[in-house]
Each structure stands twice: as C-alpha cells, then as structure tokens.
Amino acid sequence: MSSNDTTTTPDNTPGKPPPDAPGDSSAALSALLRVLGAVERAGNRLPHPFWLFAILSAFLALISWGLATADVSAVDPAGDKTVAVRSLISVDGVRSMINDAITNYATFPPLGTILVVMLGVAVADRSGLLAAMLRAGVAKVPARWMTFALAFTAMVAHIASDAAYVALVPLGGLAFRAVGRSPLLGIVVAFVGVSARAMTPAR
Prior knowledge:
Blueprint: H1 22-44, H2 49-69, E1 73-76, E2 81-84, H3 91-106, H4 111-127, H5 129-139, H6 146-156, H7 163-178, H8 183-198
Antiparallel strand pairs: 1-2
C-alpha cells in the first residue's frame, strides 16, 4: 500500500483507495453536519413559537371551514359513527374553542409528566446534580460505546411517553459533548432511539 492510502494491483499499478478508508467516514460526518446545519438555519428562520402557534391555528380554522363547506365526514372506528367536520369559523366553532380551551389543555395526556420532568431537570441542572451525574455516568462509558449506551437508554426511556423527547434528547447532546464528540450527533441518536422504540408495534 502506498503512502497516499491507495491499493496496488499485482503489476504495481495504483488502484482505488480501500472502501473503509478514514476519509470516507470523515466525508460522511461532514455531510451529516452540513445537513444538520441547514436544518438549524431553517429552524432559526421560523417565527416565534407564539406566532407559529397562531399561524397554525388560523390555518387549521381555514381547513375546517373548507372541509365543512364540502360536507366532508368520516367514520369513527371506535364508535362506528359518522362524524362530520365542523367549521371553526362559525358561532358554534368559536364557542367550542373558547369553552373547551382549558379542558383540552388540562386533559392533554403527556402534559403532567412533561411539567414534572421539566421542573425536576431544571432543579437538577441548577443545583449541579445533573452535571455531576452526567460526568459520573459518562466516565464509566468508553467513548466508542457511547452511541450504543445512549441508543439503548433512549429505547428504554420510551416508558416516559412524550417526556422522553423533552428530557433525553438534550441530555444526549451533553453526553456526546462530554466525550469530545459532536453534540448534534448525540441529539440525533437520542431522538432516533426514542422514536424507534415508540413506533415499535406492541404484540
């Protein structure tokens, strides 16, 4: 093998670099980081979450008006009843949005879990407990096993429902950064791990 990582054929003519050359993984990592950077820049151009929520709500109201005007309906598989689309741009629709706003917010299934987890993570972070636990946990995991450990933890963390996304995804970035790797990759590994286990059908 020559000094520029090329293979040679029996007649000593240079051939192609080996498929597992270090440059291949570096190029793939650079491409992934460029894609993640583009996603980050696109996300930074989005409006404030308040205005984003308002825009999506207005868009939903327009869709409901259009579907209600077209007399669109669907069959509810739970009760086997036909449910017609109700327009939110109407007296009954506005009354329903105002009267049911608090009920919909309070009965949102993962809301209680997410609030408790966020409060706990905030207290642990400000007190230094979270950083100490991360350092202690990461110190016992070799850098080459960090991806496997994070993915396994993410798949197990699905029992926390949607709270796993809130708590574990940023922790994945911190864990990867602690071992000198890109925190963006840690975020991706944690997100994919939670999503993959959550989408696995139960038997």
